[in-house]
Design goal:
Elements (H helix, E strand, L loop, with lengths): L14 E3 L8 H4 L1 E2 L8 E2 L3 E3 L5 E2 L16 H12 L16 E2 L8 E2 L7 E2 L6 E2 L19 H29 L11 H14 L11 E8 L10 E7 L4 H11 L16 E5 L4 E3 L5 H4 L4 E7 L11
Parallel strand pairs: 10-14
Antiparallel strand pairs: 1-4, 2-3, 4-5, 6-7, 8-9, 10-11, 12-13, 12-14
Length: 311
């Protein structure tokens, strides 16, 4: 009869100790070894996980009982391991990748599985199989890192766009050919004096908190009205957009404003920032485009600022 020590046999084998609660009460009535010439009754029998027959301790292994389906348990276990995803699948770990083809153009190996987890190259930021993991194998020095080209192009594109915008603003200022006011004093002391003076006369919503106010000199150019340079001092919220400032300024200076009624740029009003030398977009925030003491002018028929994306 098998000794009690047999219950300590690890389960990571082709055979396992039978569970009395699941295997027909084997420990209560015992089981006969199913090897033809043995047939010994054993109260602690073993179940072969390849052929599903019961054996005594002496004949529990596949070799000892000449298993009718040798290696079946090992094959099932191997297939189960291969079906598991790699450690880094879906987690973006440095040396593990999700299931995908190797990034080497000449390779069709699938990586990201338990058998071939793949290796991530920090230099070119691509994933490779074991054969192409070395930089020399995937020609790393001649590859542009993923994301690097786009980022560099975008940086240069942005710089170029703003440079063109500044040049366009200067050209537009000359193009209008109109006698526009010169910028107010630029020294710190002069700006402080100008701001203090404008605060004394500026009009606006008294309910607006002082820390939210931006004080501006507002003028209407001759093309917009019958009077030349009707002007005034006003304050607006730094949270407003330029389009709202335009509406309020046009109303205050009694300038006809048909921006919401026409699509023709010849009839639309635009806001020109004297100190910045450019037209302001309707969607710009007052707090980011203007500071107290600046001057803005309402111009008609000068067209919109260019779209940075198209520059």
């Amino acid at each position: 009869m098998a000794s009690s020590s047999s219950s300590s046999v690890p389960e990571d084998t082709s055979y396992r100790t039978m569970d009395p609660s699941k295997d027909d009460g084997a420990s209560l009535v015992g089981k006969h070894c199913q090897l033809e010439y043995c047939n010994q009754i054993d109260f602690l029998p073993f179940l072969c996980q390849s052929c599903s027959k019961t054996f005594c301790q002496e004949h529990r292994t596949e070799d000892s009982h000449k298993c009718a389906n040798p290696g079946a348990w090992a094959r099932r276990r191997r297939e189960a391991e291969m079906a598991k995803l790699g450690i880094g699948a879906g987690k973006g770990l440095q040396y593990r990748v999700s299931a995908k083809p190797c990034d080497s153009p000449s390779c069709s190996t699938t990586i990201g599985s338990g058998r071939n987890p793949g290796v991530h190259c920090q230099t070119c930021r691509r994933d490779y199989c074991h054969a192409h993991r070395l930089k020399e194998e995937h020609d790393c020095k001649n590859l542009v890192p993923i994301g690097a080209r786009q980022g560099a192009d975008m940086t240069e594109r942005t710089k170029g766009a703003f440079a063109k915008l500044r040049a366009w603003g200067a050209a537009k200022k000359q193009e209008v050919g109109r006698a526009l006011p010169k910028p107010k004093p630029t020294s710190a002391a002069q700006r402080m004096i100008a701001v203090n003076n404008i605060k004394k006369t500026a009009k606006g919503d008294d309910k607006l908190a002082p820390e939210k106010r931006v004080y501006l000199f507002v003028e209407a150019e001759a093309e917009t009205t019958t009077a030349k340079y009707p002007k005034g001092a006003f304050f607006y919220s730094k949270d407003w957009v330029i389009g709202r400032v335009l509406d309020a300024a046009a109303k205050s200076l009694q300038v006809e404003n048909v921006n919401n009624q026409t699509s023709s740029e010849n009839d639309k009003l635009r806001v020109f920032h004297v100190e910045g030398g450019r037209l302001l977009d309707f969607s710009e925030k007052v707090g980011s485009a203007l500071v107290s003491g600046n001057t803005i002018i309402l111009l008609r028929g000068v067209g919109p600022p260019p779209d940075l994306i198209d520059l």
